[in-house]
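For reproducibility, we list the full input for the pyridoxal-5'-phosphate complex.
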Amino acid sequence: MIPISKPLLDEAEIKNATEVLKSGMLASGEWVNNFENAFADYIGLKHAIATTSGTTALDIALKALNIKSGEDVIVPDFTFISTANAVLFQNARPVFVDIDEKTFAIDPGDVIEKISPKTKAIIGVHLFGHPFDVKAIREICEDYNLFLVEDCAQAHGAEYEGQKVGGFGDAGCFSFYATKNMTTGEGGIVTTNNEEIEEKMRILINHGQSQKYLHTTLGYNYRMTNIQAAIGLAQLGKLDEFNERRITNAECLNQGLKVSLKTPYKEKVVRHVYHQYVVKLEDDFPMSRDEFIRYLSENGIGSAVHYPLPVHRQPMYQQLGYDRDQCPTATRLSEKVLSLPVHPALTDDNLRYICDTVNGVS
Ligand SMILES: Cc1ncc(COP(=O)(O)O)c(C=O)c1O
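The corresponding predicted structure, in tokenized form, follows.
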């Protein structure tokens, strides 16, 4: 079976993790500091705060920005659910915005429609590895005096106009879950150039401690461990190579797929790092999506649907009373999309086989 995703780990991760195990210093320590510094350098920012997951990264970013009950935060409707849930964690209200048909990213026109006096922030998601329209969203944030949080969970190393994502807003939140472009198993990190936000986040991830056993605010244990950081440092050293392979694999699929499905779109000003290779089934595609998934699986190819429902249609959000009939583009695309393998572990033979098998549907 060709899996839909596969982490690439080798002697570098084993060596680093073994060093941590031998040292006995398993909790958060020097390795985490080194990983944070290396990640901040990679993105080109002053600060990075490592956390337990992408979800907790989003949570502390919103807490540090003091998002609270009675306030609205704009989020795209087409994303993984934690982008929106992080807003609920603050007792604030996520307001869903539709997406751009071509890039799947937040639609700046709909953002303007949904802004109200209660709006405090926008979370833009660099979905599938393709940066959102940073220029337009930043302008909106400046015009309406809103915070900008970038959800970079799927976009390590992606670029907009030559600059890495994670530094365009008040905070950039990354995930290191096992399927991501680089991994620590579970884990996350927040990047920022803002010292005040950095300081707040450092306290929040560590039980609200400003000094040892002096707790000045309600905090959490969201600390990354040295073992995770050791794996992360090895992965970070290979991230550019991983992304280059994703890009080459995507180009190979773009050229090889000949049936009626739309291959991923890429804006000229971005470096798309293909966390997922998401195709849209055209109306004349000869199979239903379910039949296609079954066909691929019977032929040894893993696939996935990112995402089968727009967030507002998730049962949990329906129970909260969200209008079922909003965000028509996200809703329509959720019925058409399918992700094919694009990860860096694919061989040339794998790619040829995927193209031949997919082309065999017609
Ligand atoms: C867009 C997006 N945001 C947030 C997250 C949350 O990250 P984590 O799973 O590390 O909590 C993910 C993870 O899948 C994601 O894809």
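The pocket of pyridoxal-5'-phosphate is lined by residues 53-55, 79-80, 82-83, 125, 151, 153-154, 175, 177, 188 (CB under 6 Å). The chain has a mean pLDDT of 98. Both points were considered when choosing residues for closer inspection.
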